[in-house]
Amino acid sequence: MGKISLTGIKPTGMLHIGNYFGAIKPALELAALYDARYFIADYHALNQVKDAAELRNAIRHIAAGWLASGLDPQKVIFYRQSLVPETFELSTMLMAFTSKGLMNRAHAYKAAVSANTARGEDADAGINMGLFTYPVLMAADILLFDADFVPVGRDQTQHVEMARDIAETLNHNYHETLLVPPQAFVQENAAIVPGIDGRKMSKSYGNVIPLFSTEKELRKLIMRIVTNSQGVDEPKDPDSSQIFLIYRYFAAPDEVKTFEGRYRAGGMGWGDAKEELFRVVNRELSPIRARYEALMAEPAQIDRILAEGSEKARFIAARTIRRLRKAAGMS
Ligand code: ADP
Ligand code: TRP
Q1: Does 201 sit in the ligand 1 pocket, CB within 6 Å?
Q2: Ligand 2 atom closest to the CA of 138, numbered from 1
Q3: 287-310, pLDDT tens digit by residue?
Q4: Which CATH number do you get for residue 186?
Q5: Most informative mutation of 78, 109, 138, 148 for ligand 2 (most atoms within 8 A of CB)
Q6: Is 169 domain-assigned?
Q7: d(CA 107, CA 116)
Q8: pLDDT tens profile 48-95
Q9: What residue numbers bound the domain in which 272 lies?
Q10: What pTM was estimated for this model as a whole?
Q11: Nearest CA to ligand 1 atom 14
Q12: From the CB of residue 329, how many other CB atoms can be counted at a distance below 10 Å?
């Protein structure tokens, strides 16, 4: 059997081009090499998003974003976590093999505690059990599907290591490899797409170029990219220019070379540089945007794709649960 690549996508916020180059594209490349199982982690999002309309919309937005970017639901099992209830059964079972101390050491939980302490509040203020047990649910997501590789951003590697720990504890207890210990797959040279202010593009910094803005909004955002005050005639340094750094993601190698030459030669103003950036960004995003809009116009179709993927996922999940119940003495 081929190796399995699995990842979860939390439906919070709108997709931006950092997500596209840092998460979506690399995961789709892996899907060409391995059996891929990609899902919308809506129960993970519930810890943050408590408004029903907002969550429903975020689920469809993220699903349409992946489909529009090229995810083929005939090749990838593409599903929604909440439609695979076996996840929650496995999560409960894993609780019995997870020490509380392990959860105390999780970065996300620790960060929330230190933010509280710094504000002089109670250490656990605003922290729900969903946040505290987040890594167990994530371990269930991963272990339910015998995943070998889990493509994630660096901030998520600790969670994958915890899933591995939990799998090994359970396997050790039953003297049998019941669960596959997974490995995080972080692209070591994964580029960090800069935002329009020069910091890492992130929804928490408000500096993003959304993946699906209209053409007009896209141009407006690009025109807002921060530059220095060099005049038109002056030669410019491409490597310290946000415009150039973003351009490299969208342009062909010969275009990048030509653009670099225009920087160094002088005679190109920042306005011209931004126009050239807009041209290549819009060229890449236009067809994706069109597919996205067509999908979002028919939300029932998105729901159907996820429901069909979830049926396939449940078939695999049920197998894992049967294996575990038997090993645990529950059948
Ligand atoms: P944000 O920082 O906007 O909250 P998330 O934490 O939701 O983004 O990230 C989702 C995925 O997108 C992760 O795999 C993350 O590594 C990737 N990602 C986010 N921002 C960038 C960026 N600026 N460059 C590259 N990858 C990114
Ligand atoms: N925790 C991940 C994030 O915040 C999302 C996620 C949930 C996930 N379950 C997963 C990622 C399983 C990989 C595997 O981005």
Answers
A1: yes
A2: 9
A3: 999 999 999 999 999 999 999 999
A4: 3.40.50.620
A5: 138
A6: yes
A7: 14
A8: 999 999 999 999 999 999 999 999 999 999 999 999 999 999 999 999
A9: 212-292
A10: 0.94
A11: 153
A12: 7
